[in-house]
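Workshop exercise sheet. Pairs work together: one partner reads the sequence aloud, the other fills in the structure field after running the prediction. Swap roles for the next sheet.
Pair: D.N. / O.F.
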Amino acid sequence: MFIRTKICGITRLEDALVAAECGADALGFVFYKKSPRYVTPAEAALIIEKLPPFVTTVGLFVDASPEQVGDVLDAVPLDLLQFHGGEVEVDCVQYSRPYIKALAMKPGLDVEAAIAHYHSAQGILLDTYDVVLPGGTGKAFDWSKVPKNLSKPIILAGGLNPSNIAQAVSTVQPWAVDVSGGVEESKGKKDHRLIRAFIEGVHRV
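Structure field:
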């Protein structure tokens, strides 16, 4: 099985181009102002304009209003939406765009039951639970808690980096993996060596 890779929290053109050159399948742009990886719609549009073909662009939102999401979509040619807050399905489908929904791996979460609330999602992203942060914690969760044969493609996130990606993929066998802090030199600035090492690690598995 070929595992896809998303590099999230892109804020600089040079990082986006390196990720694409290394084989990233998708790039994530964070439109959540409380995040240190936040980009304005204008900044994201300028980066996306320079991307080569066949790289999926993903916009990440956290409990954004329809007006906020609409303003971004008016300015940025996004391929896929990612909802990382408490959005219910009716919130996610109103933009006529494919989307994925992030679920925090809270203790005792019935993953399949939670997935059932998002029939229209193209995939489900499983991330580390934190009482404060909606994502980008830099911490991994217990991958053995992810059930096998779930009804939606699974994107694994949370604390992934070049040193643990092989174990993560082998344990979960997800459709894709999503990394942000694990390939950074500082928040919002990617380390190009780590991007390359991470993607090579995914492909080796």
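Discussion prompt: The longest strand covers residues 56-61. What would you look at next?
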